[in-house]
Amino acid sequence: MKQILLLFLCLTFACGSSKKSTEKKVKKEKKELIISLQRTPCYGTCPIYKMEIFSDGSAFYHGERFVDKMGDYEFTVSKETINYILKKAVEINFFELEDKYTANITDLPKTITFIKNGKDQKRIIDYYGAPKSLKEFESLVDGCIDYRRMKKLED
Questions:
Q1: Domain with 58 in it: what CATH number?
Q2: Has residue 18 been placed in a domain?
Q3: Residues 5-33: tens digit of each pLDDT
Q4: Structural domain count, the chain
Q5: Which has the closest alpha carbon to 84: 123, 51, 57, 49?
């Protein structure tokens, strides 16, 4: 009986101490949205999707209509690519651009871009009349979607 009690105490102590040491070793990085791009519908066949990139390099894609990948997917983006996008945002003065580019026109899709770089964060709605530098930046962000390495998320 003593041996069983001793074995029970040893196992309890061993399991408890390994749990605490494991908890100390695991460093949890706060996952924060830093880049996102969304394309909204028009009355025609405009692609409808949203892509989000987080601080740890994880990324999420949701394709809704008129895109090659429909549904929810995940992929990763390298730190170098993230840093390049953030650098380009600074170069085009993203944080000084207008919040919204629009006109009294119907049937155009919107491109909604969000960037967070340190303390700076901004969301721009591009419907019509955005500068060329913003259009090129939107294409750059689009280009980091890695369709070949996407993993479909279960429904």
A1: 3.30.1560.10
A2: no
A3: 343 334 333 444 444 433 333 445 579 99
A4: 1
A5: 57
SS3 content of the chain, % helix, strand, coil (to 5): 35, 30, 35
Residue 127 CB-density burial (10 A; 0-12 exposed, 13-18 middle, 19+ buried): middle
- The rounded distance, in Å, linking the Cα atoms of 57 and 137 is 19
Residue-wise pLDDT for 73-130, tens only, equals 999 999 999 999 999 999 999 999 999 999 999 999 999 999 999 999 999 999 999 9
Q: Is residue 9 part of a domain?
A: no
Domain range for 49 = 34-152
| Beta-sheet strands, E only, within the chain | 33-39, 48-54, 58-65, 71-76, 100-101, 111-117, 120-126, 151-152
- Kindly list the strands in the beta sheet with 71-76, ordered across the sheet, starting from the edge strand earlier in the chain: 100-101, 120-126, 111-117, 33-39, 48-54, 58-65, 71-76, 151-152
